[in-house]
Write a structure and sequence with these properties.
The protein is an alpha+beta fold. The protein has two domains: 142 residues, no CATH class; 174 residues, Heat Shock Protein 90, CATH 3.30.565. The chain has eleven helices and seven strands. The strands form two sheets. Strands 2-4-5-7-6 form a five-stranded mixed β-sheet. Strands 1-3 form a two-stranded antiparallel sheet.
């Protein structure tokens, strides 16, 4: 629905404003033609209300021809054609209405008054059309600015939520319990390996906390973070967890949203590797395809469904962050193959300066 008439209050304000305008136009024509102002009101009030009905739908023409995205010749031709149609319909309707008044009250010569003031009326109709068109474009510009502000706020909120979820994930009692239990077992048999394990946990927690102060990270940072996470989980899963990384080294400096890969990999561990008795290989592939960064994470799944499905919150959160960060330029796709679950992220390749 047209935004100017989507509520009763807006309709009343619009009608009141247009009524005031019609009174002013009737007074102007009355002074030019020496006609009685009440006769002018009778003659021009319905046609100018009809003019409002004709002009308002130009909103949809303006919406379909956004400024800055439409060639000027196309803009000029489209709006000129629309104006010609509106003016033609208005003149025909006005003449028909004046002729009807002639048949009702012939002594007042309504058609003569309409014809006498025709050029003045045409100029006023064109002026109203141009003003309403500018108001429409101003509305779109304001709406675009408001949408950008809302998108920025939403992005900050999503990042904050992701930060909170990340911190919860890193310090989750189960995560700490599993990690500390694993550490205790390692410390008894191999103190040197226990030392390396402590470093992995420390580095993992350091990144999770430090990234919250940044608005972006590099693909290399993200890959190092998930490798630390997988290193911790590998101590718990043992031979059940195997990993495979195929990364185009030229893409490591590509800027990505912080912690965009961790929820995907975490999802693969929780609902993939952990669901399979024999475990499997978690594969991460990062490559370029037609100017786009493609990150593919695949993991085995239990075809017998021995583990309950997840809520899907992790992947939906990633999808929401991608949309807020990149708009329509980024895509998250999931695919369930035979015995495999594949997640693909398609991200614009941006440098630090472009992000």
């Amino acid at each position: 629905m047209h935004p100017f008439i989507n509520s009763t209050n807006k309709v009343l304000v619009l009608l009141a404003g247009w009524l005031l305008l019609t009174f002013s136009i009737s007074g102007l024509i009355s002074s030019i033609t020496d006609a009685n102002i009440f006769d002018c009101l009778i003659l021009f009030l319905p046609p100018y209300f009809l003019c409002l009905v004709f002009i308002l739908p130009n909103y949809y023409v303006c919406r379909g021809l956004p400024l800055g995205q439409t060639p000027w010749m196309t803009l000029l031709a489209s709006h000129t054609l629309t104006l010609i149609v509106i003016v033609g319909m208005w003149v025909l309707a006005g003449e028909a209405y004046a002729a009807m008044l002639d048949s009702i009250a012939p002594p007042l010569q309504w058609s003569l008054l309409f014809d006498t003031s025709l050029y003045t009326n045409l100029a006023l109709v064109v002026l109203q059309f141009e003003i309403v068109m500018l108001v429409h474009y101003l509305f779109f510009a304001t709406e675009k600015t408001r949408n950008l502000e809302q998108a920025a706020l939403k992005q900050k909120l999503l990042i904050s939520q992701a930060e909170l979820q990340a911190l919860k994930a890193t310090v989750h009692p189960h995560f700490l319990f599993n990690s500390l239990n694993t550490l205790a077992n390692i410390a008894l048999s191999d103190p040197q390996q226990a030392h390396r394990f402590c470093l992995l946990i420390a580095e993992f927690l350091r990144y999770s906390v430090a990234y919250s102060k940044k608005s972006s990270a590099t693909l290399g940072d993200e890959l190092e973070h998930i490798q630390n996470y997988l290193g911790i989980e590998r101590e718990r899963f043992g031979e059940r967890l195997k990993t495979s990384f195929e990364v185009d080294e030229n893409l490591r400096d590509t800027v990505v949203p912080p912690l965009i890969l961790f929820p995907v990999v975490e999802n693969a561990i929780k609902h993939g590797i952990d669901s399979c008795i024999e475990g499997g290989t978690l594969s991460v592939i990062a490559r370029e395809h037609e100017g786009t960064l493609v990150v593919e994470v695949s993991n085995p799944v239990d075809e017998l469904g021995r583990k309950l499905r997840g809520t899907g919150h992790g992947l939906s959160s990633v999808q929401g962050r991608l949309k807020s960060h990149y708009g329509e330029r980024a895509i998250l796709k999931t695919n369930r193959l035979e015995g495999q679950f594949v997640v693909k992220l398609y991200l614009p390749i941006l440098s630090e300066a472009e992000s």
